[in-house]
Amino acid sequence: MSKSVFIVEDEKHLADGLRYNLNAEGYEVETAGTAEEALALLMDDRKTYDVVVLDVMLPGMDGFTLASKLRSQGYYVPILMLTARGQAEDVLRGFEAGADDYLPKPFDLSVLLARINALLRRREWLHKDWSRAAQNGGAKVFDFDGKTIDFEALELRSGTQTVHLTLMEADLLRYLVEHEGKIVSRSVILEDVWGLREDTDTRAIDNFIVRLRKYIEDEPSRPKHLLTVRGVGYKFVF
Questions:
Q1: How many structural domains comprise the chain?
Q2: Residue 226's CATH number
Q3: Domain contains 94
Q4: Peptide bond into 104 cis (omega under 30)
Q5: Is the separation of the CB atoms in 29 and 53 below 8 Å?
Q6: What is the pLDDT of residues 125-176, one digit of tens each?
Q7: Judgement on whether residues 143 and 189 belong to the same structural domain of the protein
Q8: Torsion on CA atoms 209, 215, 219, 223, rounded to nearest 10
Q9: Nearest C-alpha neighbor of 210 from the set 223, 198, 195
Q10: Residue spans of beta strands (DSSP E) within the chain
Q11: DSSP 3-state assignment of 219?
């Protein structure tokens, strides 16, 4: 079954080129030239996509705002964000908005294809790993302190509240849970968990930790589960 990619890019020649090359690789592709058009199409329940490729610099609403709106409205398809520069502040803003990966312009088509395939694999692995665990007598979910993390559904439930997780949030939280009680360094999170370059600004990790604490801690300013190990990294304890 072919995978579908939605491209949000205002430069028509670039969007057309990406469509042509992705079609040649077996992907179904649709495009939008503005964030406003993309928002309307992506929130249409009649059509689903496997990956969104989103340019930051768009006329009107920018890519950061579009990503935030999609996430706030419950749209959790992986987002690959295209940035004009690979600057740390752009990367951080993209991650904070809900992007799952980023790629600075200009880029090689082979790199774009590799990033798209990596996002698809991460999503499939996340489901398969926990489905396999369930088949072997394990659980797809992790319960602790009155909270439930459903890694297959990408949800964290606490009482009557449900928080939807992005792929990056779920990857990080699952890795910390699987290494319960062990210190996980920032470099491991960047490279082994997310597959990012080691020189990516580590504030991205810190911002994710702050967000996860809001989800899982009763008092985020005084965490008892997601702990900071000063100068090293983080660890999760039950």
A1: 2
A2: 1.10.10.10
A3: yes
A4: no
A5: no
A6: 555 554 444 444 444 678 888 888 888 777 888 888 888 888 778 888 888 9
A7: yes
A8: -40
A9: 223
A10: 4-8, 28-32, 51-55, 79-83, 101-104, 141-144, 147-150, 155-158, 161-164, 184-185, 226-229, 233-236
A11: coil
